[in-house]
Request: fold
Amino acid sequence: MEEIYAKFVSQKISKTRWQPLPPGSLQTAETFATGSWDNEENYVSLWSIGDFGNLDSDGGFEGDHQLLCDIRHHGDIMDLQFFDQERIVTASSTGCVTVFLHHPNNQTLSVNQQWTTAHYHTGPGSPSYSSAPCTGIVCNNPEIVTVGEDGRINLFRADHKEAVRTIDNADSSTLHAVTFLRTPEILTVNSIGQLKIWDFRQQGNEPSQILSLTGDRVPLHCVDRHPNQQHVVATGGQDGMLSIWDVRQGTMPVSLLKAHEAEMWEVHFHPSNPDHLFTCLKMDPFVSFHQVKLFNELLTFLSHSISNQAHVHQSVISSWLSTDPAKDRIEITSLLPSRTLSVNSLDVLGPCLVCGTDAEAIYVTRHLFS
Amino acid sequence: MEELDGEPTVTLIPGVNSRKHQMCFDWGPGEMLVCETSFNKKEKSEMVPSCPFIYIIRKDVDVYSQVLRKLFNESHGIFVGLQRIEEELTGKSRKSQLVRVSKNYRSVIRACMEEMHQVAIAAKDPASGRQFSSQVSILSAMELIWNLCEILFIEVAPAGPLLLHLLDWVRLHVCEVDSLSADVLGSENPSKHESFWNLVTILVLQGRLDEARQMLSKEADTSPASVGMCRIMGELMRTMPILSPGNTQTLTELELKWQHWHEECERYLQDCTFASNPHLESLCKIMLGDEAALLEQKELLSNWYHFLVTRLLYSNPTVKPIDLQYYAQSSLDLFLGGESSPEPLDNILMAAFEFDIHQVIKECSIALSNWWFVAHLTDLLDHCKLLQSHNLYFGSNMREFLLLEYASGLFAHPSLWQLGVDYFDYCPELGRVSLELHIERIPLNTEQKALKVLRICEQRQMTEQVRSICKILAMKAVRNNRLGSALSWSIRAKDAAFATLVSDRFLRDYCERGCFSDLDLIDNLGPAMMLSDRLTFLGKYREFHRVYGEKRFADAASLLLSLMTSQIAPRSFWMTLLTDALPLLEQKQVIFSAEQTYELMQCLEDLTSGRPVHGGPDTQQCQDDDIETTKVEMLRLALARNLARAIIREGSLEGS
Reply:
């Protein structure tokens, strides 16, 4: 983990995402996109960590990432996803959902498509709309699902001008994140600690299933689905709790891991090595300094299920769903040095990891498992 | 009040004519609003069209520089690290830690300077290019001052090593020599290059004698006439005694050796060994510390502190820190020679040589356009325990005052406010109140930002601010018709009054529409329900509907009754509750017991007897009253019937 490159970029980074690799490619990831927030002018930027063939003075490869191109974005970037290799979808605090197109030939970004009032509030008794931040996006070509502070779910298609399906008042509180479970089902998390599963085949405004944390209604900020086992879902909450759910059974999380006292902003299963789970959160400087050396800002949870090794053929049972903590060994590794400002976003692809912070730095490593 | 340290600068605002119009202004944190008023100064009849704009005037413009933002962000991490240096660390390890921190700060300044330089080169129009270049020179001056302070105050180098540090300091900041050297060595015949002797002289002036010797050997190779002289000069250079870090010799030993060497140089000069080569002769004079010879090289020395260090190197290499200021003052006087007056930078460096830390900080505060430098330097020096006794006549001590100024500047910036929080944290006296005042003024455009602000407040137990932020968000949600969200926020704020208000809205909506909205929230209130009576009622009332929906009539009935008898339900809602009881009373089996029925009757009578008798001619009112009367009569009938059935049933049960 020594080769982590940091670069200060003069803007607070809210989202970082690797550009997907072409199918069958053996390359490692080289390009990533970032979105900024809380600046007077916000930008969607594309960066490259390509070697450019030049060596630095120490003889090693220059690991610094270089800006390829950027484009002004109206409002904070609340979420950012690659739609395909050329297109990036962003969620704005103005309620706007935008598709940007990257032209690799002349390295520019342009607006490809825009839904300006995807999310909005309707004031009491007045027909006037005020925009509501769009908080989460998930893409599954050709579909884009967005959720927002207005509790609305939109289903867009890249080639349609209007929303294909809208669920108004899907949630009474703010929806924070969304993920595809298996098409056409999606899963949303909200600010009162509930997971809701929606089936687009069903009409009406009711979710097909509600799962929730017990009693304390802690807001959930992020959700990710296991890449191979579609019923396994990880969520991260405001209290830094990592919960693993099996959506097929029960309405309660299968296991809970108390990682920290502060918000867990993102959680990701490693796409090709799903025994690894990555989370990022803001750390409490006092706790981290005095008591918990192990729990750091950026954690990777590594699960080895010893019991499952005896029954390898039963590998359908994900190691994440084992409820007996004695059988499970979970290793937690901190990847970043201790900083005080929040890590807002991270993305993993192969051996590469990128994350962005409120301290206006982007960290990149290309040797995750070395 | 102390007297002013300098004339306040006048800032002209383009477009505002202060001669013709009066101006008005208002202070803000780090900025100021200015506009023209319609008052005329001297009642002039001519109406000059006034300027229709309100201007925002920012004091701390450096905060808005894209490049400097990196400086602020990166140094923030170093600052926080410094605050956590364990107090127990003492002596050597502590000092080396502090020196390391200081070097980190300097490397950040340098990185920033290099980037600014790149930006200046790439700038499209000359005006902005000039602006960036001036920023580069400011950064460079900052680093120069910091480095000197590091040597004198943090490293506290004793006589001997002190001069080595100062030499490094000069070499680092007078670095044109490297490009010159590359230029000369790259030419076909270095010794015939026009700048050859300049280069050799500079190398000697900077005490880089090994390199100077190599240069001289090149000269010896090409001109056989001067081989002998060059060899002698080279030998002199080689034998000059210097203190090397690993050497164990004492200062007295060194002084003795140096004295011998000095005499040897003197002898060669007296012998006129170098008389035939003016360049070598001048070099020899320099190496003897001859002031006149040094001053002849003014161009190459480029500034007085270089002159000072060179002069010390060849006349008093074991200078004590305490004597520095005399040499510095005389060097400054000699170098300027009465031709020009010292610049702010000269004054700052001079104050440092005089070990007057407060003067350094004061001069820097006046000369530099941002608080970053003084705030961080003062903080570091404070950690070196150099500033303890100094208290200001306002606010807290100097460290805290400067940190507060800097952090307030950060808070004035739309996105750097997060950095400011940590600076306030480390101001023990006024930091918390400042943070409280600033944090409430951060615009909250998204919930995510609000959550970040909330977390900052919650970590610091700033309950008042937490409440106010949650309230703002709850109000916003109500305005946007998001009752569920509003309720969540008021629960988080533990704001009972607001929870009551939102619950009332829910109940009103229910009365209007006949169904509940936001069931996902109300059904999952849990212990939060106890926050306010009205919220408890809302939750319980919804529970009644659920139980009734599940056809558990007995449970539903006792729940309904308890809502009224325990006085949780607001009076205004009792009629609705009693009406809800109607279908239960009309069920085939007896649900309300006789005793429960009495209680229901009691409630109904309480409600009707307390009602004032209306005598108004309002038809609408009459109509409403009619409906009401019918309802009451229906209820009375149902209650009476139920009571009868209940008495019979209970009587027969007891009998059997």
